[in-house]
Amino acid sequence: MRVLFLFATIFVAAVLAVGQETHPSMQGMQSLSISYETPEQLSLLKNYVDVPGFDFVKSTNDLVDVLVTADKIEEFKQLLEEHRMNYTVMIENVQQLVTEQYIEQEVERRLQVATQDYASGRLSFTYYPNYKEVNEYLTYLTQTYKNIASLITIGNSYEGRSMKVLKLSTGGGNKPAIFIDAGIHAREWIAPAAALYMVDLMLQSHRDLLTKVDWYVLPVLNPDGYEYTHSSSANRLWRKTRSNTGSNCRGVDGNRNYDMGWMVAGASNNPCSDTYAGPKAFSEVENQHMRDFILARKGQIKAYLTFHSYGQYILYPWGWTNKVPDNEPELRNLASQCAQAIARSRRTQYTYGTSANALYLAAGGSDDWALGKADIKLSFTYELPGGRSGFLLPASEIKPVGTETFEALKVTHQYVTSKYASH
Ligand SMILES: [Zn+2]
Q1: Is 383 a known active-site residue?
Q2: SS3 of 111, please?
Q3: Distance, CA of 410 to CA of 48 (rounded, Å)
Q4: Residues forming beta bridges with residue 153, ordered by sequence position
Q5: How far away, in angstroms, is 180 Cα from ligand 1 center?
Q6: pLDDT tens across 20-79, in order?
Q7: What's the average model confidence in pLDDT over 312-324?
Q8: Residue 8, pLDDT above cutoff 60
Q9: Disulfide engineering: 31 pairs with which of 54, 90, 111, 229, CB 3.0-4.6 Å?
Q10: Where is the active site (predicted)?
Q11: pLDDT digits 0-9 by tens, 346-364
Q12: What's the average model confidence in pLDDT over 405-413?
């Protein structure tokens, strides 16, 4: 116990150290969940999008979640009350929760470091792995499952981190493939962790999913941003890449940067915005590598799944327009089956629909590109659960979320097999 306390003390000191870049202070920042009913109420909320001190992290047809800094919170709450809008405080003090989680995270990591499993590279899935640990785990998989798992390095990130795709294949040619990525948004930690946990489940106990389908998994599509959120608690809510586009503000929203209706809606041309689409489509080198990898396997990859958080949505194209793709019935049907499979597992309720219609217009998304440009007919974005704490979902949820989402993976695999595999 004393040892744990010591670690805790050390890490309080470490996490309070702030880097050169300043982010909105999380001290006293609150997460509000606000329900709205009228168009007037919605437009009132919209006035605060991209206003410093406000971070709209989730929006639906009748509800928004917004992080508000301490200096703005009281005035904002007053405004909500004046306009008769109900809200719930989901997180009382974001900084406190972030700090607590960093300590828990570090304590859990220290406990694992001493084990043989950790030395081998195996992940415990009891804390969120950093970029290095993700890579060690990928290497561990290739050593442990030599005949099935291999790594393909697809290039380096802006800051020079290597990007690795895990290939799972039992061999033989002409198999359909499913491509999975996660972590394009840095702060959505549950996404890479759940994706890797599903890989773990597949290799340990569900090898049947490998018989007729090859899998490609890119667990961290934005390694610089991901590592940045791990490097200091002050950076925990970073979303974008870390590229420098020549402004005072760094980073591009990778999921507004794809070449499919780029910048037509739901994206910003302001480098300081969290939805900055970049100076041009595919300005981000990470997205370029992913694009090239997928296009090199055009025709083989039959399903594209990208994991985000949070909100419990299964979304499919289009996000750039309210129109729907030709195969919308097929996408809706498969999304419905996946949502049902997840609900059967742990009663987690997912909503599904096109991104634009179920959520909001957002152009330049990877799922739109996968369908529109890479011709992958089955293209889905998963917004994994956030519980009450959104991006700060406790690590104890990695396995439960991975387990329930794996049910959707099974359904997708079954669909791909029956439609595309030779029998
Ligand atoms: Zn996201």
Answers
A1: yes
A2: helix
A3: 41
A4: 164
A5: 14
A6: 578 899 999 999 999 999 999 999 999 999 899 999 999 888 999 999 999 999 999 999
A7: 97
A8: no
A9: 90
A10: 383 (proton donor/acceptor)
A11: 999 999 999 999 888 999 9
A12: 98
What is the C-alpha to C-alpha distance for residues 213 and 144, in angstroms, rounded to an integer? 20
Distance of alpha carbon 40 from the chain centroid: 31
Determine the Cα–Cα distance for residues 100 and 364; give it in Å rounded to an integer.
35
* Residues in CB range of 349: below 8 A, 6 or more apart: 312, 339, 343
Preceding peptide of 316 cis, ω within 30°: no
3-state secondary structure of 217: strand
Q: Pick the catalytic residue: 133, 227, 286, 383?
A: 383
| Tokens representing residue 75 in the block | 């005035």
User: Strand ranges (DSSP E) for 36-70?
Assistant: 54-59, 63-68
pLDDT at 113 over 60: yes
Copy the structure tokens of residue 100.
Answer: 């607590």
What is the Å distance from ligand 1's center to 193 Cα? 14
Report the distance separating Cα 93 and Cα 24, nearest Å: 13
Answer left, alpha or beta for residue 422, where phi above 0 means left and psi between -120 and 50 means alpha.
Answer: beta
pLDDT of residue 422: 83
Tell how far the Cα of 14 is from the centroid of ligand 1, in angstroms.
27
Q: Look at residue 60 in the predicted model and tell me its pLDDT.
A: 85
